[in-house]
Amino acid sequence: LGANIGVGTTAEGVETEEQLATVTERGCTQVQGYLFSRPLTPADARAFLQRNIDKFEPAAPGARKTPGDAR
Fold it and tell me: What is the pTM of this model?
């Protein structure tokens, strides 16, 4: 649905490689969950991103920016 209307879709609660494969095959453009990280405080999230920046890809075309993306 998201692709049909030009917006990205986020799968939440991804905990296994199998779940990641499933949601990716079904067109989710972004994922989050324990497979990647436990919940973090803002300071810990910044540190996590700085340590792992080379592992991230730019947002998929059509993905909407959120207010937090501007930082």
Answer: 0.62
In three-state form (DSSP H/G/I as H, E/B as E, the rest C), the secondary structure along the chain is CHHHHCCCCEECCCCCHHHHHHHHHCCCCEECCCCCCCCCCHHHHHHHHHHHHHHCCCCCCCCCCCHHHHC
Q: What is the pLDDT of residues 8-61, one digit of tens each?
A: 899 999 999 999 999 999 989 899 999 988 999 999 999 988 998 887 766 656
Question: How far apart are alpha carbons 17 and 59 in whole angstroms?
Answer: 20
Please give the Cα distance from 39 to 20 (Å, whole number): 18
